[in-house]
Amino acid sequence: MKKVIYFIAFIGLIFVTSCEKELDTTNLYGKSLESYYKTPTDIEEAMAGVYNAIYTANVHSNEALAANLMSDMMLGGGGPDDKSAKWVDNFEDPAEDTYRDMWTQCYNGISRTNAIIEKTAEADFSTFFDTPELAEQFKNQAIGEALFMRAFYYFRLAKFFGGVPLIVTIDSPRDVARATYSETFAQIASDLKLAIETMPDTPFTAMPTSDYGHANKWVAQAYLGRVYLFYTGYMTNMEGQSTSDLPLVDGGSLSASDVKTYLDDCISRSGYKLTPDFRNLWPYSYVNQSAGTTVLPWAANEGLSWVGQDGTSPTFGTGNYETMFMQRFSFGDWGWSNGNIYTNRLALFFGIRDNSMVPFGQGWGWGTINPKLWNTWDDADPRKQGSILPMGVADQGTGGYSADKGDHETGYFNKKYIAIQHPDPSGAIVGMFVQLYGWGNTDMQLMHAQDFIFMRFADVLLMHSEITGTADGMNAVRARAGLPAVGYSLDALKLERLHEFSFEGLRWFDLVRWGDVDTAFSETINVRNSGIAATYKANYRTEIKGLVPIPETEIRLSGGIYNQNPGW
Hints:
Blueprint: H1 2-22, H2 40-52, H3 63-70, H4 83-89, H5 100-122, H6 132-161, H7 181-198, H8 217-237, E1 246-247, E2 253-254, H9 256-269, H10 287-291, H11 297-301, E3 323-327, H12 345-349, E4 352-353, E5 362-363, H13 371-376, H14 383-387, E6 388-390, E7 412-414, E8 421-423, E9 429-431, H15 432-436, E10 452-456, H16 457-468, H17 472-480, H18 490-501, H19 507-514, E11 525-529, E12 532-536, H20 552-557
Parallel strand pairs: 4-5
Antiparallel strand pairs: 1-2, 3-10, 6-7, 8-9, 11-12
Helix pairs in contact: 1-2, 2-5, 2-6, 5-6, 6-7, 6-8, 7-8, 8-9, 8-16, 8-19, 9-16, 16-17, 16-18
C-alpha cells in the first residue's frame, strides 16, 4: 500500500511539474488548463502534485529539521565538516540560499492549489458518481483540500520569512511585492475558514485508509487554532502590537471565541482521540515485535505496542487515532532525481553519529539534545524516556555507544525521529522499515519511512486550553501521561507543550510567538567536540525577530521588489 501511494504521488509530480514547464511551449501530454481537471482522476493526480511540494531537495528547507535546529533544546551537532547544521543552529546564513527550496516548493504547491480551486469549481463530475450528492461531495473535498494546502504553504512561508508575495489565482502576476505580515495571515485565515466550510464533516473513523495523509475539515480546524495563536502571539510579543483577533481578507476577523468554537467542534465530532500511551506513537515501540525478539529491553518491560501510521486500520500496529496531519515517506533511490527526499531525512540526520547499534542505527549526529531538558524533566513523566535517548544505557539499547564521534555531543539524542534497525532472518542488521515494507535497498541513508507528524490531537487539546485559559485540555494530556491535574497558567501550558512536543518542530515557533526567543539562548552548554571538552552558546540576535533570510537569489530575481528581513 505505502509503495503504491508514493508511486502515484511521484508520477503526479512528474506530470504536474512537466505540464507547468511546458504549457507555453509544447504540450507533451495532451493536457492543459483547458482540458485537464475534468475527471476525478485528473483531480487526484493534481492533488498528488500539491502534496509533493512539501518535499524539498535541500535538507535545511525541511521545515521540521530547520525548526528543530533553531530551537533551544537542540544543538547543531554533526561532524567537523557539517558546518551548515551549525550555521542554522547559530542563526547564520553564509550560504545565502539556505532556505530557497522551501520558498520555491511552497510557491510550486500554491500554484497547483490555485489551479485546482479554480478549475474544479467549473467541472461537472456527476457522470463519475452514482448520485449528484456524491459528485458534489467529491468536488467540495477537492476544493476544500486545495484551500487548506494553500493555507498550509503560506503559513509555512510566513512562519519562516514573514510577509510574502500573495499569488492566489492562476493569472495573478508573479512580480508582486511582499504583502504585510497581517495581509499574509488574513489570506491564510480566510483560506482555512473557507476550507472548513467547504469540506465534508465525515468523522475520521469513517474515512477509508486510502484517504490517510490527506487534509480534512478537522485538520483545517486544528490549523486555524495554530494560525490564530501564532499570529496573535507574534504581533503582540514580537511586534509590540497587541491583538486578540486574526484578520480575514474581507476586512473581518476571527476572535478567540470564534476559534474556540472550531476547536470544540473538532474535539467533539472529529473522531480523533489521544493514544492511551504516548510512547506508542513512535516506531521504537514496535521494534521488538518487528524483530520477533527483544532488541529494546525498555520497550518490552514497558509493554509498548505501536499504534502504526496508516490510520485506524494500519498494516502494522494497533490503530492510530491521534495523528491528524503528516508528511508521508517511502523509500528513495539514488538513481532517481532527488529520490532521497522521499525518505524521512529527519531520522537520518538526527540519528546517532557513527554508531550503528541495535535497535538504534547510525545517522549524521545532528540535533544533539540540550542536557538541560533531561536534567529538569521529572522522571515520573514517562514522556521523558519516551522522547530522549540517553547514550551508554543497555536497557535503552545504547550500551555499546562509542562517544566522541561528532560535535556538540551531550550524551543525548531524540528518540522520536531516529534510525531504527534490527537483524533480518539472515542475521544482517537492516532498517526496520526496510523489512516491514520489503524494500530491497538497504542503504542506511534511504531506510527511513517513518511519517513526520505535523498535527496531533494532543495539540488540539493544548491549543484549546491556551486559547480559553482553562486547564481541561491540558489536564487531559497530562492524564494520558499519568500526571496529576494542575490549574491553568501560561507557564504551566508552556512546560506542557515543551514536554509533549519535544523534537516535533513546534518548540521554535512557540518560543517566537510567546516572545521567549529573545531570552531562550542565554545559557552556555557543556559539550564535547570530536573528543574535546568545550562549551557552546547559540548567538541568537533579537533584530531578526524569529525570521530567516529571504533567499538572496529570489531578491536578485525580483529586481529589487523584495526587501531583505532585518538582521540578514
